[in-house]
Design a protein that fits this description.
This protein is α/β, with parallel strands linked by helices and 391 residues long. It contains 13 helices and 15 strands. The radius of gyration is 21 Å and the shape is globular. The two termini are 28 Å apart.
Length: 391
């Protein structure tokens, strides 16, 4: 089969819609269940490339959680701490390395991942399928599925869950095309391999990177390669913890991603872990309530009596002083940027979220100012010399 008809394009009024291969080649995937749509396939193909590159760069299983053609999370299959198991709602299940990768990818920004499209670098096993079954999701793409895992996934969404099996041997043509407003664009595919060679030119006083820092910087750069630009990505311990996608200015990327990283860390505060939720509160409602509790709006929400819907007793607020004291304990964060930082304000914001090392292209007329800001906070910064715009 070399084409597949779709219900509609990006919006219901955009018909007809299909995916197809030119020159009558076979489609490189098989739909095992469901009816994936236009945006589903965009998410699937972008996220598939991301996890394949993460697996190649690290040698570990990888997973991504995609929404609207950008990752909400991406990670490799490192074991989870007891605290991460709690905040990812996985403390009651056995996790394989692949399931750990998805738990990390899904758990970093749970609000953004609601209704995600999932990519897995390896054959989906039963623990990963059981984890996916508990979450609100649109679909999954993987190189294969264990029989028991496939049965679990087919039971999701009353049998309509989108399950795509991708041919891992497929290689696209080196030239790609896209039509916009009736005009065809052509360019060479971005086949740049992201490896440690890109991290050799360190321009700061702190002039070395640990193996873990290099790993996390590579994860940030690979994630950015498939994130709508402008974009910045914070990574810690093998997982993206904050992604700022599609912003028009660099500082807004850094702030957005940094705020997400802060929320990820604040979810691990003892007050948040001890919130007295009522029995039966759904995961999505719990995520939304935690987000409000962490925010500065919580006191107003308490005044409105909203807490009674979700909590057994009225929780004490997490004060600004408590938040700052907890955030000051966040360290060891790697930061990647898909284009150069034009001002040192990005470094100031990154420092507030525990950044210890940065990878960015360099090339700004204000590079000296950015380097000076890194030296101020003992941050190592590598100039990669490559831009990673993705549109």
């Amino acid at each position: 089969m070399n084409e597949l008809s779709l219900k509609y394009g990006c919006n219901p009024n955009q018909v007809p819609s299909r995916v197809f291969m030119k020159e009558r080649k076979e489609l490189p995937f098989t739909v095992l269940c469901g009816k994936p749509g236009y945006i589903n396939f965009l998410d699937a193909f972008n996220s598939w490339q991301l996890v394949q590159e993460l697996k190649k760069a690290t040698g570990l299983p990888a997973a991504a959680s995609f929404k609207h053609v950008s990752p909400a999370g991406a990670a490799i299959g490192l074991p989870l701490s007891d605290t991460l198991k709690r905040i990812y709602f996985t403390d009651d299940v056995e996790l394989s390395p692949l399931a750990c990768a998805y738990a990390r990818a899904r758990g970093a920004d749970r609000m953004s991942s609601f209704g995600d499209f999932i990519a897995l670098s390896d054959v989906c096993d039963l623990p990963t399928a059981q984890l996916i079954a508990k979450e609100v999701s649109d679909g999954v793409i993987a190189p294969g599925y264990e029989p028991e895992a496939l049965e679990v996934l087919k039971g999701k969404r009353k049998g309509s869950y989108n399950i795509i099996q991708m041919d891992p041997a497929y290689r696209p043509e080196p030239i790609e095309h896209k039509d916009v407003f009736g005009v065809t664009f052509e360019q060479g595919r971005n086949e740049l391999e992201i490896n440690e060679g890109l991290l050799e030119r360190i321009v700061t006083e702190k002039d070395s990177l640990s193996a873990e820092e290099k790993r996390d910087l590579l994860i940030s750069l690979i994630t950015l390669k498939y994130t709508q630009s402008n974009s910045v990505c914070y990574v810690k311990d093998g997982q993206a913890i904050g992604i700022g996608a599609g912003q028009q200015s660099r500082i807004h990327c850094t702030r957005l991603a940094g705020n997400k990283a802060d929320i990820w860390w604040l979810r691990q505060h003892e007050k948040v872990l001890g919130l007295p939720f009522k029995a039966g509160v759904r995961r999505a409602d719990r995520d939304n309530t935690i987000d409000v509790y962490i925010s500065d709006d919580y006191t107003d929400v308490l005044a409105d009596g909203v807490w009674e819907q979700f909590f057994e007793t009225r929780p004490e607020p997490l004060t600004r002083e408590e938040k700052r004291a907890w955030l000051d304990q966040l360290t060891g964060v790697a930061l990647g940027s898909d284009a150069f930082f034009p001002f040192g304000d990005n470094i100031e914001r990154a420092h507030r979220s525990g950044v210890c090392c940065i990878a960015q292209p360099g090339g700004s007329i204000r590079d000296d100012n950015v380097i000076e800001a890194c030296n101020k906070y003992d941050i190592a910064m590598a100039f990669t010399g490559i831009r990673l715009f993705h549109h």
